[in-house]
């Protein structure tokens, strides 16, 4: 059971479609504690990513993930674009030169991507950011695989952990990003970036599970 290049492209395309469907919702969340552009930012970025992947002859999972990341960095301003760009670029690093990857390699690469987000944004758990969805998700994948789960089960648990992490951002006071300018007034609203990160994990669970 391995994840091939087409499977990874399928995940990215599925997420682009989910972002399109949730564009208004993500922007609405960002209007409460930010500047109302998270949905449109991600949509613009992932439309460019899909166009870039169209008809590609590439077969290298790592290279393709790096292309996804670089496209996001070049097309999306603000915090969200460069942070998602970093996630995919750093995830691609360990997978460079591979046309297919094992569940363990996939999980380790995702973890390296999330570490990249952390290094770039300097946010910790409970700062009310995308990391509140991403960190529990990578923990869930690694611990599930380590205890004998297959990729499908591991991704389902990761999506569940990301959902819980996303919901947990609501009462939090933001410590990083634009929402932190609101101080205590940022509490009572779900973080837009944690929401899009949950959707990314859910898209992985929905699409890559079929690999298993
Ligand atoms: P901007 O805040 O520049 O308008 P977006 O609206 O696209 O960018 O993205 C906002 C999201 O980015 C927030 O909801 C939060 O999850 C995430 N974010 C902001 N700053 C950081 C950071 N330092 N580390 C991790 N995530 C962050
Ligand atoms: Mg914004």
Bound molecules: adenosine-5'-diphosphate, magnesium ion
Instruction: Return the structural class.
Output: mainly alpha
CA-based gyration radius:
16 Å
The total strand number stands at: 2
Assembly state of the chains shown:
single chain
CATH topology: Serine Threonine Protein Phosphatase 5, Tetratricopeptide repeat
How does the major sheet shape up? 2 strands, antiparallel
Question: How many structural domains?
Answer: 1
Poorly predicted regions:
none
Number of helices: 9
Terminal CA distance: 6 Å
Q: What is the CATH class?
A: Mainly Alpha
CATH H-level homologous superfamily name = DhaL domain
Q: Which percent range describes the beta-strand content?
A: under 5%
Main sheet: which strands, in order across? 1-2
**Would you tell me the overall average pLDDT?**
96
CATH architecture: Alpha Horseshoe
Helix content: 55-70%
What is the N-to-C order of secondary-structure elements (H for helix, E for strand)? EHHHHHEHHHH
Provide keyphrases for this structure.
mainly alpha; Serine Threonine Protein Phosphatase 5, Tetratricopeptide repeat; 2 strands; 2% strand; globular; binds adenosine-5'-diphosphate
Give the arrangement of secondary structure elements:
Layout: E1 3-4, H1 5-21, H2 23-33, H3 38-53, H4 61-75, H5 80-92, E2 100-101, H6 103-121, H7 131-146, H8 151-168, H9 192-208
Antiparallel strand pairs: 1-2
Helix pairs in contact: 1-2, 1-3, 1-4, 1-9, 2-3, 2-9, 3-4, 4-5, 5-6, 6-7, 7-8, 7-9, 8-9
The site of adenosine-5'-diphosphate has 24 residues, from helix 3, helix 5, helix 6 and helix 9.
């Amino acid at each position: 059971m391995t994840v091939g290049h087409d499977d990874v492209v399928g995940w990215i395309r599925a997420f682009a479609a989910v972002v399109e469907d949730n564009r208004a919702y993500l922007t609405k969340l960002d209007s409460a504690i930010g500047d109302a552009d998270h949905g449109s930012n991600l949509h613009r970025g992932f439309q460019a990513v899909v166009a870039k992947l169209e008809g590609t002859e590439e077969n290298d999972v790592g290279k393709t993930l790096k292309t996804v990341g670089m496209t996001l960095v070049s097309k999306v301003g603000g915090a969200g674009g460069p942070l998602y760009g970093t996630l995919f670029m750093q995830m691609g690093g360990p997978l460079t030169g591979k046309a297919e990857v094992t569940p363990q390699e996939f999980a380790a690469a995702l973890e390296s991507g999330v570490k990249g987000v952390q290094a770039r944004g300097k946010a910790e758990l409970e700062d009310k950011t995308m990391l509140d969805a991403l960190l529990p998700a990578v923990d869930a994948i690694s611990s599930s695989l380590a205890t004998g789960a297959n990729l499908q089960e591991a991704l389902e648990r990761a999506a569940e952990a990301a959902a819980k992490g996303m919901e947990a951002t609501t009462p939090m006071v933001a410590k990083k990003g634009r929402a932190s300018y609101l101080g205590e007034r940022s509490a009572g609203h779900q973080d837009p970036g944690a929401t899009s990160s949950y959707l990314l994990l859910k898209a992985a669970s929905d699409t890559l599970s079929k690999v298993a």
